[in-house]
């Protein structure tokens, strides 16, 4: 977090960036608290809502070496246990998007939510 925070602060406060898009961060409330203390509160949180069985199928089909069904199921359980509270913390900033559609449609929704 320290290296990320330093780079982000330099870019934002140096006037070079309007903000940042972080993927899968913060993962838990501890990271969220640390991020707020070092950088600030997020302006928007994008949550791609997707049925777990569809997500598992997609991840298995992408072919990454660590995409084993048991590993994916563990990540899903960790999300429910650790990350769902982050969504609740930022509920007034969450844009919940339907991830059950084609990638280009979802990308359009993400861009619109960030505008």
Care to describe what's here?
There is one protein chain. The protein is 57% helix and 9% strand. The chain is mainly alpha-helical and 115 residues long. Strands 1-2 form a two-stranded parallel sheet. Helix 3 (52-62) crosses helix 4 (69-89). The protein is globular, with a radius of gyration of 16 Å. The mean pLDDT is 89.
Mind sketching the topology for me?
Elements: H1 2-13, H2 29-38, E1 45-49, H3 52-62, H4 69-89, E2 94-98, H5 103-114
Helix pairs in contact: 3-4
Radius of gyration: 16 Å
The best one-word shape is: globular
The class by helix and strand makeup works out as mainly alpha
Distance between the ends: 26 Å
- Mean pLDDT across all amino acids: 89
Give the neighbour order of strands across the main sheet: 1-2
Number of DSSP-assigned strands: 2
Q: Strand-and-helix sequence, N→C?
A: HHEHHEH
Uncertain segments of ≥5 residues (pLDDT<50)? none
Helix content, binned percent: 55-70%
Main beta sheet, described? Answer: 2 strands, parallel
**Strand fraction:** 5-15%
| Tally of separate helices | 5
In short:
It contains five helices and two strands; from the N terminus they run ααβααβα.
């Amino acid at each position: 977090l320290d290296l990320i925070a330093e780079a982000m602060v330099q870019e934002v406060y140096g006037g070079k960036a309007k903000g940042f898009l972080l993927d899968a961060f913060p993962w838990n409330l501890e990271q969220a608290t640390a991020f707020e203390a070092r950088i600030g509160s997020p302006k928007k949180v994008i949550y791609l809502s997707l049925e777990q069985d569809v997500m598992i199928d997609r991840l298995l089909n992408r072919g990454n070496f660590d995409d084993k069904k048991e590993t994916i199921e563990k990540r899903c359980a960790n999300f429910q246990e650790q990350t769902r509270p982050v969504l609740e913390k930022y509920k007034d900033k969450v844009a919940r998007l339907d991830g059950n559609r084609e990638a280009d449609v979802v990308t359009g929704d993400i861009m619109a939510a960030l505008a």
